[in-house]
Amino acid sequence: MIKNKVNPKLQVGLIIYLAFLSVFLCVWMPVGSLSEVRIPQQKGPLAKSIKIATPTVTSMSPRSVSPKLSEDYYIGGMICDYLAKRTWGVFWKQLDPVKALYEHGFERVRVQVTTVSSSDLRNTHPSQWHILPWKNEYWSCQEYAEQILKEASDAGMKLSLVLLLSNEAAYAWRQNAPPEWQNLDVENLSIALEQYCFKVAKYFKDRGLDIDIYEIGNEIEWGILNFLPGQKIILPPGVDVTRDIEYMRNKVWNIEAVLLKAAIKGVKIADPEAKIVLHINTLGYNRENYITKGFFEAMVNNGVDFDYAGLSYPYIFYYEVPQPYFKSSELQDVINTISSLGKKIIFCEFSYPNSSFGIEKAIPVPGYPFTPEGQSLWLKDFLFYCQNNPNIIGFYYFYPEYFQGMANGKAPELESSGLFKSDTQIQPAMEEFLLIQPVLPPTNVKITRLTNDFIFFREYINRISWQRDPREKSKIIKYRIHYKVKGSNNKYILLTEVNGTDFVYHHRGLKSDQFFSYRITAVDDLNNESLAVTVSN
């Protein structure tokens, strides 16, 4: 029998044709089965795994979209103690508070660092810190602060650092120089300060931590490094430092200006683009705000090179001020004075209680009870005020990671004012930080691993899907997708942009061992870009 022979050229052509058809007619199949395999995603603002303790206040005024809310507007929180509680305690084992804050509108962190470098922490991987017994030297030491900054950076946050200029907590009248600086005069202390600030700024920069704002000291209107009235500076009998501006200007602030200039010089040598904040806490201490206005006037007149005036908003449980203070003429007078100096304002600290727990003597602001709903309403109005005042450039919530019981009642001011109900639940007030964003991030972001079986090879595909936030009022014109190799220290790079009406993207041509992390943002017709939602496989 004579068999029919197939022309070899025809055979090759047929194979090519079939391969061509497979590209366009193939069916994408999830890896390993006929059903989709959902990869656990980074939980977004509306994800079910982050529980909101009580319903958000519904009587909200329309969200204000301000052109100020751009890259140069600072929205964040000062965080610290969650790391100690997670590492040496029992809290924060499930929910990551840093990621939860970022996903609810916190673009930044404000982190404090002491002059201490702990050899224990330096020589132990952070994953093993829990085996070390707690020491007080760990609190905000260089390595401890570095870990917080790294976690915040990995979450997508921008970084602000407070140089405490002390081996311990420093604030207001407690400004103790570290032991090695105790006996230095102003000239030699200035040299030491410049060297230290250069060294610490370079340390974090060399580790890939892009800190763009530095605060020199913390609550520094009374002086720094023991050069305070009644300490290294003589305080004559009868002098009222809260009102005697001539004394403060000629005996305290002139010395402080020398020290601050040295510290700023050190930071600028390491990072010439760094922004500098000087932060004080006497806002509202008296109706005239002598110290608040006088301090910044003195710093400008003494040639201190700083960018922003940092203020602590008056806490409800310390001293009485007209309420709500953000609507007072006294605050506006301070803002006008600082603005006349050519400086914008950052509220470096502010908070408001959601409970009267431990602060029973404090009196709620009329219309804003100490309840979760009252906290939400106060925040909504305060943030609205800030974002619509052209002389305010940002704000940081004070210890947002706290909740009742986190400190066993030893820090009631923090526990009653935190933005978490527990270490697994947020307070409804946290949503207010997200709602002031010009553009809301996409929600329900998911990733599915698919395969495409060709004749000669198997293609792996990451199918990324998302939804538009139903609360979004802006016109979304596109979504941006950035990516990096999963688990790498590389920076995210732009993968693609898709139309604002598209809600899925297929990252194709992958190999079986290629896995990535993605960040998806929404962009409106004014080119405002939302915070990113992260998803990995």
Describe this protein's structure.
The strands form four sheets. An eight-stranded parallel barrel has the order 4-5-6-7-8-9-10-11, surrounded by four helices. Strands 1, 2, 13, 14 and 17 form a five-stranded antiparallel sheet that branches. It has 537 residues and is an alpha/beta fold. It is built from twelve helices and 19 strands. Helix 6 (186-206) crosses helix 7 (245-270) and helix 7 packs across helix 8. It is globular, with a radius of gyration of 27 Å.
Q: What's the end-to-end separation, in Å?
A: 58 Å
Which band does the percent of strand residues land in?
A: 15-25%
Form type: globular
Q: Let me know the average pLDDT.
A: 88
Structural class: alpha/beta
Largest sheet: spatial strand order: 4-5-6-7-8-9-10-11
Q: Give the number of helices.
A: 12
Taking the sheet with the most strands, its summary is: 8 strands, parallel, barrel
Count of extended strands: 19
The parts where pLDDT drops under 50 for at least 5 residues are 1-6, 8-50, 54-68
Helical amount among residues, as a percent range? 25-40%
Instruction: Report Rg.
Output: 27 Å
Core attributes:
537 residues; alpha/beta; eight-stranded parallel β-barrel; 19 strands; 27% helix; globular; disordered N terminus
